[in-house]
TrEMBL record:
Its main location: cytoplasm. Residues 361-429 form the Lysidine-tRNA(Ile) synthetase C-terminal domain. It comes from the Bacteria. One of its GO terms (molecular function) is ATP binding. Ligates lysine onto the cytidine present at position 34 of the AUA codon-specific tRNA(Ile) that contains the anticodon CAU, in an ATP-dependent manner. Cytidine is converted to lysidine, thus changing the amino acid specificity of the tRNA from methionine to isoleucine. Gene3D superfamilies: 1.20.59.20, HUPs. It comes from Pseudomonas aylmerensis. This is tRNA(Ile)-lysidine synthase. ATP binds at residues 27-32. GO terms for biological process: tRNA modification. The N-terminal region contains the highly conserved SGGXDS motif, predicted to be a P-loop motif involved in ATP binding.
Amino acid sequence: MKPTLPAQILQALAPWRNAPAWHVAFSGGLDSTVLLHLLATLANTDHLPPLSAIHVHHGLQAAADAWPVHCQSVCDSLGVALRVMRVQVQPGASLERAARDARYQAFTEVTGAGQVLLTGQHRDDQAETLLFRLLRGAGVRGLAAMPVQRPLAGGYLVRPLLHVSREELEAYAHVHQLRWIEDPSNADPRFSRNYLRHRVLPVFAQRWPQAVASLARTAEHLSEAQGLLDELAHMDLHAADQPSPFAWLPIPSLALAPLCELSDARQRNALRHWLTPLTRLPDSDHWASWLSLRDAKDDAQPVWCLADGELHRCRGRLWWLPAVWSEFSDASVSWPDPQYPLELPGNGRLSATGNAPAGPLVVRYRQGGEIVEVPGRGRRDLKRLLNESGLPGFVRGRLPLLYQGEQLLGVPSLAGLWPATRERWQLHWVPQTCDQGLS
């Protein structure tokens, strides 16, 4: 016998019973109304985390202005605190996506460390999501549809109703005489999801009554398959996560050789996993650029341009450069007092140790032809020194050089590649971290 709806909810939320707080994303619609009522009722008999509701007001239609009042009335009747958050939806090609982005940004702001944001998506929503992404040509990760839980800010987003049908939610709402909002935009077939919900899935259900349940079950199978692909990616990336010869360079990198030993499909799987936190991934047609980068000649330094940065290949390694790396200014920067670190615009920090020359000094960047004094080796061509070091080309143009007038006084020690000067002082450069370029 199938468990009651309250029992299903308690089972689904068992891993988060000790969370500091539960927040319900409360639109006022059927799904979130049932979810909030279930949790508020269970809180009377079970020990649950503190419960509150969050209503996000997008301001996209006049009817929505009355919804916060309705939500407040429902929350008052249940004894649940409500927070109304008004957001600005950025104009763009997809109003649905823009509204979703604004909504989840609000959810991120309210979800503290270890806290849980609960949303009301149900089994029918899952089936729609799978069908929608299938028609867009999504891969396994996309077809896995909505996960039951995922990280959000310092806590989690959890969907405890994903195994519950809309029919069950409506039955619960009618038994408990709940009132909810019917969003007029949900009936507009111009929106792709509404078209699937009102025009496509009903036709499927006439021919295959279990269509929605079957689609949702398929999403579960694909989620399990994606989990296995993730495990495989972890194994392959572990082999490629070899120490960089430039440990001081704070950007993600991988050894290329272990990846080249894999099949093309495993290479793409590992790279998708590695790149996912760093950039929006390319579609299938653009993966040909990976093959061009991988197979370029050894002395080449190919670049694969992606949505949020670039993937470089240099000296047998892959290096990820976020878009912010291209934003630094190579203009000269004055350094009045080397006793204090110097912030370089878009290029990290420069500091000096030992008896550094007195100011005023100037930091410049390479123009070509620079000569530097190297203790024990005399005057050396900087380009030759950099070639000997194997320093990646994308770093060389950012290397800060210290001048006094027109005299080149010093180059950063680069983690010991150059010894201290005769005067026993050194420059130390900490480049801009990759994290500074990520949202």
